């Protein structure tokens, strides 16, 4: 039996690394695109090539960049993937306000470049586009489903809106197998250190170790539907196993504020937070030691922020048979315990 070939972009990131592992275990020949960076950013996939080789499996890295059609054309032409998972992005919403043009080039035009590679070569590739709950933005309806109107609130969200529609356009216009996974926030111990969940658990672990406090955060009132990245990469794969391409919301259906996330993580780390003040003056002290643990830093406020995300994943449950295994409380524990363990704390 010939093995299926998968091509993954964004493999050095949180989702790409879990997805590559998942596909290698499923027996795929996995090719992945990593961009050139001046310091190596491959920790999340360290050893995957060796592990794959030992088990007679394939995991091969190629240098490429979503801003560079030449590299994408060459990689797609050489690998001729059965399935292409496009996860690469400048994925930080806050930073997209500081780098709007670059974000648009990679997050919006980058998708067009990849779709054009597949179309112009006449390949039968099934294409997964990493769409996002940031598309809903202003929150016209709760919970948000595949039929909720979009109203993005950041350069990142607007770029993902283009990416969503150009993906749909290639599906409808050229009959290509292109699917948008509209994923709500998902986290893990591999989450980038400047997203609010991981920043919180990493900093709380350091504070527990006796290092400098406090944890400085922005908008504590924002609500997110947080799931577990390992669960979510399986949903990506399931989407491409469907004969008909479509769009799917992937979410837990639970929503919590950033403040709730911080309070729960602090509890797991052994603190009991007592909140005081309002707005930029809000603070949290540890009830037992009196130590200042959290304060607000307006530098982390965004020009416009998405206040409420809560997804309706019923279509994914009905069609893909997919449901989240890990929900909020367990997720916070997984992240907090992992960062404590990394410092030798429990
Ligand atoms: P992530 O950890 O930030 O990973 C992003 C990946 O994209 C990294 O491998 C990064 O490479 C790569 N990349 C960035 N710019 C690139 C470029 N110009 N060319 C090629 N590769 C580039 O993101 P993630 O959390 O795994 O998310 C994966 C995808 O899902 C992203 O498209 C994100 O926007 C989307 N998404 C994420 C969530 C979530 O909650 N995690 C929810 C919905 C949608 P380096 O390592 O070199 O930086
Ligand atoms: N990053 C960050 N840092 N966010 C903070 C902070 C802070 O210090 N303090 C408060 N927040 C708030 C943000 O303003 C936002 O309302 C919320 O915490 C979540 O921020 P992030 O963790 O940065 O995630 P995000 O929701 O903006 O974006 C993530 O999820 C999207 C899906 O909804 C990213 O992974 C995107 O790539 C993804 O599309």
Gross morphology is: globular
Strands of the widest sheet, in order across it, are 3-2-1-4-5-6-11
User: What fraction of residues sit in β-strands?
Assistant: 15-25%
Mean pLDDT: 97
Low-pLDDT runs: none
Order of helices and strands: EHEHEHEHHEHEEHEEEHEEHEEEHH
The end-to-end span amounts to 47 Å
Helix content: 25-40%
**Over all CA atoms, what is the radius of gyration?**
20 Å
Q: Tell me about the largest β-sheet.
A: 7 strands, parallel
- Number of DSSP E strands: 15
Bound small molecules, deduplicated: NADP nicotinamide-adenine-dinucleotide phosphate, guanosine-5'-diphosphate-alpha-D-mannose
Class computed from helices, strands and strand pairing: alpha/beta
Helices, by number, come to 11
Give a topology summary.
Layout: E1 5-9, H1 14-25, E2 29-34, H2 48-54, E3 58-63, H3 69-79, E4 83-86, H4 93-98, H5 100-120, E5 126-132, H6 155-174, E6 177-183, E7 186-187, H7 196-208, E8 215-217, E9 223-224, E10 227-228, H8 229-240, E11 247-250, E12 256-257, H9 258-268, E13 273-276, E14 283-286, E15 292-296, H10 314-320, H11 328-342
Parallel strand pairs: 1-2, 1-4, 2-3, 4-5, 5-6, 6-11, 7-10, 8-15
Antiparallel strand pairs: 9-12, 13-14, 14-15
Helix pairs in contact: 1-8, 3-5, 5-6, 7-9, 7-11, 9-11
């Amino acid at each position: 039996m010939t093995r299926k070939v998968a091509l993954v972009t964004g493999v050095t990131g949180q989702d790409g690394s879990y997805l590559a592992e998942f596909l290698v275990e499923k027996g795929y020949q996995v090719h992945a695109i990593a961009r050139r960076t001046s310091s190596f950013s491959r920790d999340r996939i360290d050893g995957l090539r060796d592990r794959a080789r030992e088990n007679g499996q394939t995991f091969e890295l190629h240098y490429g960049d979503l801003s560079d059609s030449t590299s994408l054309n060459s990689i797609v032409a050489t690998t001729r993937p059965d399935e292409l998972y496009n996860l690469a992005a400048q994925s930080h919403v806050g930073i997209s306000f500081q780098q709007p043009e670059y974000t648009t080039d990679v997050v919006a035009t980058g998708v067009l470049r990849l779709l054009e590679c597949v179309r112009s070569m006449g390949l039968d590739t099934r294409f997964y586009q990493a769409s996002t709950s940031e598309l809903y933005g202003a929150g016209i309806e709760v919970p948000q489903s595949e039929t909720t109107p979009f109203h993005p609130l950041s350069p990142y969200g607007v770029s993902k809106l283009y990416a969503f529609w150009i993906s749909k356009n290639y599906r409808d216009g050229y009959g290509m197998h292109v699917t948008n996974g509209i994923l709500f926030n998902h986290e893990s111990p591999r989450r980038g250190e400047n997203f609010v969940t991981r920043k919180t658990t990493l900093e709380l672990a350091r504070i527990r170790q006796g290092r400098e406090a406090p944890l400085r955060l922005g908008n504590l009132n924002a609500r997110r539907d947080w799931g577990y990245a390992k669960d979510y990469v399986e949903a990506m794969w399931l989407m491409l196993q469907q004969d008909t391409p479509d769009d799917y919301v992937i979410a837990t259906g639970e929503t919590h504020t950033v403040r709730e996330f911080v309070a729960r993580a602090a509890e797991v780390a052994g603190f009991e937070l007592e909140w005081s003040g309002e707005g930029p003056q809000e603070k949290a002290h540890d009830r037992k030691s009196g130590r200042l643990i959290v304060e607000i830093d307006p530098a982390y406020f965004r020009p416009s922020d998405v206040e409420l995300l809560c997804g309706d994943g019923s279509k994914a449950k009905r069609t893909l048979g997919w449901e989240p295994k890990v929900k909020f409380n367990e997720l916070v524990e997984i992240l907090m315990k992992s960062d404590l363990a990394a410092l030798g704390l429990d």
